[in-house]
Amino acid sequence: MANYYSDHPEIGFYLNHPLMARIVELKEKGFADAKEYDYAPVDLGDAIENYKQILDITGDVAANIIAPNSESVDLEGPHLENGRMIYASKTYENLDATRKAGLWGVSMPRRYGGLNLPNAVFSMLSEVISAADAGFQNIWSLQSCIDTLYEFGSEEQRQKYIPRVCEGEGMSMDLTEPDAGSDLQRVMLKATYDEKEQCWRLNGVKRFITNGDSDIHLVLARSEEGTKDGRGLSMFIYDKRQGGVDVRHIEHKLGIHGSPTCELTYKNAKAELCGSTRMGLIKYVMALMNGARLGIAAQSVGLSQEAYNEGLAYAKERAQFGEKIINFPAVYDMLSRMKAKLDAGRSLLYQTACYVDVYKCLEDIQRDRKLTAEERAELKKYQRLADAFTPMAKGMNSEYANQNAYDAISIHGGSGFIMEYKSQRLYRDARIFSIYEGTTQLQVVAAIRYITNGTLLGIIKEMAQGEVSEAMQPLKARVEKLIAVYEEALAHVKELGDQAVHDFLARRLYDMTCELVMSLLIIGDASRAPELFQKSANVYVRMTEEDVLGKAAYIKNFTADDLDSFKAAEPEAEEA
User: Fold this and answer.
1) Which tens digit of pLDDT belongs to each residue from 208-219?
2) Exposure string (b/e) for 181-217, b if CB count within 10 Å is 16 or more?
3) Dist CA 341 CA 537 (whole Å)
4) What are phi and psi of 371, to 5 degrees?
């Protein structure tokens, strides 16, 4: 029987990540839970076996329930009835199966009913579910919003809401508005304090809200009257049981049809403040968005895997001119690049997730006791790494998912354009990945300061000092030559000293940075597991050479005067 976890040993490889032992040590806090919960691990080996069992269960549910339901869900989609969102009928089957399998609230501490899983394992679960149906993964993975409530809410709020999510209630993050998309500082949904009822009231409209008719919402709203920027925004918890929010419209989308995207009207809706006022955007949404971006990276890797599977299976069966098309250079070139992007992107995903795990675990420990000087330094180190790597993981994997879905259709030829084949759905689903939770252009903006200030160059050079197998040494030597080329290109951009030019060339610098990081990661993986990654390492380094050398030449020959050639038209004067 198919299993979306065990069928792909590349996923389980990352349970042996060099940081995993430290993550388990921090997450389990000395394995104290084993005294109280019979399902809690007693040591590192027990924890890893526990993760494998949960992943195996998820792989079974994904392959044998969620994936078979995906076509029906895509065709039916959600609909609106009397101001309420109704899922596609098969989505309810998916929800029931994941609840019975205990796959909700998985990151939460056991005292609230959770499984206390680290981010890296949650990302693996997300990847597996996304391979089956990226639209359902959206609904399921939004349970991670509870991490923000756990981190910033009161103990009373934790005890009130976390067990409900662990039992399978859904969540949403209500951020976007008709006039506030990427620019969340413009959010105007109004929060006013009701002195009589001793609660907050929310009024206004939210748009493009994924899973918008969920049970528990985290809502960004303007609590400070007279403000117009992020300093006047706070985070609120809205409980659907309280009423006051209706679904006005469900968007008709290109893809991820099973995932409802709603427009909501808040009419004097009762809500609770989460954390402190004025910190909604500055602190809480940033934490929420970073978690969501890691979730999209995992979603992207899952779809990339499925696109590769579909392309490979078709190429093995389809014959033209008396030969299977998998033997055609044009086809196996596409397939090898798809696999290389998938493997390199997955390595970046789990490297990032492990960085996040270390610093988040230390932050959690810090709530109970003072950290040692060494622990504080460790927290600072891994938070910096996570902040630098998260926009790379989200941006590159979402782009790779789009490219792999595109190539899967190309391998299918005309059949790929026919609705009966899965490739067309993967192609439609993938398109949103590089748009929501921050477009790729915004991921460039988030990463570029770590690029131009030399942080990521330093990380790349440090990574290049790592030991690799004898078989991988020639590839590493080639990457080291590329690092020198990249450093020269980076220096040239700085020398130009023109912000507009910096912004124009930022995407090229971002791509080069990510590709060098992923080259070194996949070389390291191939050193440890050549049977899984050696081919991809060879292909990916060649792809990186092709791209870095080309982009470096472009950058080194660019001057400030060249910018005018790219402007579509003279900017129009703003109206007074």
Assistant:
1) 999 999 999 999
2) eeebeebebebeeeeeeeebbbebebbbbbbbbbbbb
3) 10
4) -75, 150
